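quick one before i forget lol
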Amino acid sequence: MKKRIRLRTLLFGGVMTLLFLVLISRIYIVQVVEGAKWYGLAKERWSTEEKMLAKRGTIADRNGSVLAMDTIAYNVTLNPKLINDEKLTEEIINGLHDILGTSKEELRKNVTAKKEDGNFYVYREVRSGGWQIDKEHADKIKKFREDLAKEKELYSVGIDLQENLKRYYPKKSLAAQLVGYLDKEGVAMTGVEASFNEQLSGEDGYIKYEKDGKRVQLTEGEVDYKPAKDGQYVQLTIDNEIQHYVEEALQEIMKTYSPKSATAIAADPNTMEILAMANMPQYNPNEYWKNNSNSYNHAIKSLYEPGSTFKIVTLASAVEEGLFNPDELYKSGQIKLKGVPNPIRDIKREGWGTISFLDGLKYSSNVAFVKLGYERLGEQKLREYYTNFGFGQKTGIKLGNELSGTINFKYPSEIANATFGQGVVTVTPIQQVAAVAAVANGGKLFQPQIVKSMTDPSTKTTTTFEPKMVRQVISEETSKKVGEYLEQVVSDQDKGSGKNAYIEGYRVAGKTGTAQKVTTVNGKSGYSDSKYVVSFIGYAPVDNPKIVVYVVVDEPNTTFASGGKIAAPAFKQIVLKSLRKMGVAPNYPAGSANLKKEATITVPDLTELKVQQAKAELTAKAMTFDLIGNGKTVLQQIPAPGSAVHPTQRIYLITEQREKLAIPDLTGVSLRDALELTSLIGIRLIPEGQGFVVSQKEETLNKVRVLKVVLAPPTGKEGQSGNAETNPDAKEGGDKGSETGKEGEAGTNGGTSDGQTTSNGDQAANSNTSSNGNAVPE
């Protein structure tokens, strides 16, 4: 018996020893041999990671007005397994359909989605309609979810909302093609968003920490933290208000003429900073999927035969070479070139007789420019100047997919046509603006700038982009002369093809353009008699340019299309409002006898309004104003409500009692208004001279505070034919029905002759376009 017990004991002890050895061996393997492996797996189970999203950089205009920003958004996700297990399919589909507007068919696909093994998914994203929704819709979904859960007595109904960031464009369609947009995946697609995506994107961060079984962070656990790096703040060169003026003018064109597209660019000619860049039709980048095709930026991506706006470059080249004498005479009408079977004609088939080259510029005579460009400058010089002015190459503006255009002329007919902007010459609007800015600013060609500065939110450092001069293309003297010649294209109300761009009180230089479009009929290409690209480009003031504007309209729906009729009035509207917004004083004081009666605006009644309300009303009318005093309510105003004043007249808003008022700047104010203002603030006015205030000085006379002002009468420019400053009888709108064949404000003669379309001195195609392809644009 004892022996049996001993054997059992030894056997049990042996088994236990063996098991213990196995356990020790296993522990050794786990702890030592495979220790690192299991420790790593344990850390993975303990550790958790949270992604920290970087905020995409804000895009703003030059004054800090936000054009694009990140805002909180929500993504809707579903748990199909839970929804179907709890038999909530129809309730979920109907509820989300009512809130999101997503089709029931699309929602059903998500709610009933199954894996390959036949089991329902536990996670599905509602991409259509439920991706990056705003807080208003998210709150409705939360309420629907809570109500449904309460009704069914469930903890969850299978609907979840994930907080995220989405791109928001507070100005909606304003500058939309320029700013660009992000798609629903957050991919930058167009505009500044795409071109500066690297700077705007930033870098996501994360935090990794160790947790217990209840997902509570361990106080002694390891933490790995990388902060998110937000994208840079990008400040554009555009001005929000000038952009609005431009788009407002283009919208009027779209409403009146229903063209395929309308594009305009406004820039500072002294730096080529873009002040506005607009295209019509528009689109809303917040809802880009509704009309995505309208996101195309014609300003840099479309090529046009420029028509007679291109004559500015030919003129500047001829003046620089000493080949343009404004008083020299030539025979207008047509010109026959060696090697070209058909003559090149002016818009007016019989011409205007023997006229000066300056009048040829005013009438936009093609013959004049063929003589200047083809006969005098020649192919080599023309190509050299056109290249130096930046044509046939990209401007370098920091926007994607810019086109370079062409200046590929070779044969006599091509060279001749190039002198007035038709045929093998194709340009982008931004090239036109850069070239004419060089003519305006003293001959300096600048690279267009769209970004003014970028600020890194992490380092607080700002990178500023300075104007970049490419080359000197003409001399300052040539620039000045060309400006004076182009001014007369606008100011001469009898002969000037650009008379509809004339702005009272300002010296404006400019040129119209009307180019026929090439179309294909029955397999044959030729210039259309009914499809045109019309344009106007110019700058102001001539003696100190502050703004250059180009307006181009593709296929306006009107019989007698011309740059003078369609684009020039839009140019006038944009420039006048912009100059007033910039505070640029007119070239002669408001109230001058030389101002036409039509150029007035009625002063609104602002008394008793809050200052902010009064400022908003004047800003909407693009009227300049000064606040006198620090009060919050307008007590009085000068000029009085209902007064008819020139659009450039400054409005004074008095907001405090007289004893608290400071002396305002009275420059440009009439003696009557100056007396009224000084009377209000209780100071004696001592005038010297007559007319309008040109200087002022505060003094003490016999212990009494006085204000001495020097006044001068308005002076007009001398020696400009048809300028309203020297010719008060010149009419605005239609001309005198002279031999130019123009009538009415549009200046059209209402007819065609041998394929010619006449319009406001604008040149159309000559009678030979069908045979030799030589289109004669305006």
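fyi The two ends are 130 Å apart (CA to CA).
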